[in-house]
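Quick one, tokens below. Sequence please?
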């Protein structure tokens, strides 16, 4: 397939591009800079200049592709409303371009806010509906396009998509530990995250593009539950720092913006995903990656 990928030079997107090329697919990656363009062409992909606010570039990229994989997000933690607006507009532009074609539209989503008190399953619908909801309600918006002849597929990523070079949540926790001189967890450390290795996540995206039926929700989850205390202990070992409990009211000053996520349990299972696509995660665990020095460079 000729796949148009947004976020193609990002942490997950660059692994997805590698996975698609290795499987014999053609890749056209959205590139917002000359540096991004160079990275894509060096891999053997084609660069398509534009960004999330260039809706015409998104429409054109989707119209010329046999599949669309939407991984980009502004992740503007200081202005989440802007991130939500841009996400919804981008999904609408891509979906409109694919309407009636039967071609796949893979849209990245997250596990936060789905359910409380248990791991989320693929059957759990996102409660985010409408432009003022989390991520602009883009998950439900994308699924709505299944009724308009689009093979829409949602991939919900674990809060930690880990590996060497990760600049996500665990990277910020590691930076906070360096700054504070100790690796912290909040309260008793019983809150937990799901996790998946970056290469396993990339393979799932490819399988979803190739095989998943319209309206499918997939969970990029290898480990259902890793406690935040286990994460903090691994970070402490990797940096040679003591491990401490941080009071919930001190989480913001101690951890920065990532503190509110570290205080939340975000877990999910992936049994249905693994069964549907014969996807078997095989990468290192999150703790194994931290212990191996993935976050100490």
């Amino acid at each position: 397939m000729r796949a148009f990928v947004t976020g193609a030079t990002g942490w997950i997107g660059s692994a997805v591009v590698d996975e698609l090329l290795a499987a014999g697919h053609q890749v056209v990656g959205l590139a917002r800079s000359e540096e991004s363009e160079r990275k894509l062409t060096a891999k053997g992909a084609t660069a398509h200049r534009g960004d999330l606010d260039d809706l015409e570039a998104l429409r054109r990229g989707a119209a010329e592709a046999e599949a669309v994989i939407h991984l980009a997000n502004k992740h503007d933690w200081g202005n989440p409303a802007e991130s939500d607006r841009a996400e919804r507009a981008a999904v609408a532009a891509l979906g409109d371009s694919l309407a009636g074609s039967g071609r796949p539209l893979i849209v990245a989503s997250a596990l936060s806010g789905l359910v409380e008190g248990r791991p989320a399953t693929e059957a759990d619908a996102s409660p985010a509906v409408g432009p003022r909801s989390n991520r602009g309600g883009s998950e439900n918006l994308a699924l709505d396009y299944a009724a308009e002849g689009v093979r829409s597929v949602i991939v919900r990523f674990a809060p930690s998509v880990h590996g060497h070079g990760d600049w996500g949540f665990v990277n910020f926790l590691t930076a906070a530990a360096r700054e504070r001189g100790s690796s912290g967890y909040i309260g008793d450390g019983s809150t937990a995250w799901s996790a998946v290795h970056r290469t396993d996540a990339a393979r799932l995206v490819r399988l979803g593009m190739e095989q998943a039926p319209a309206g499918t929700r997939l969970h990029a989850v290898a480990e259902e539950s890793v406690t935040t205390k286990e994460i903090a202990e691994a970070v402490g070992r990797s940096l040679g720092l003591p491990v401490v409990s941080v009071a919930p009211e001190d989480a913001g000053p101690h951890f920065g913006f990532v503190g509110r996520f570290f205080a939340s349990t975000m877990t999910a299972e992936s049994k249905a995903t693994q069964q549907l696509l014969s996807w078997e995660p095989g990468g290192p665990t999150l703790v194994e990656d931290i212990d191996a020095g993935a976050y100490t460079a």
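The chain has a mean pLDDT of 96. The chain has two domains: 2-159+198-220, 162-195+224-291.
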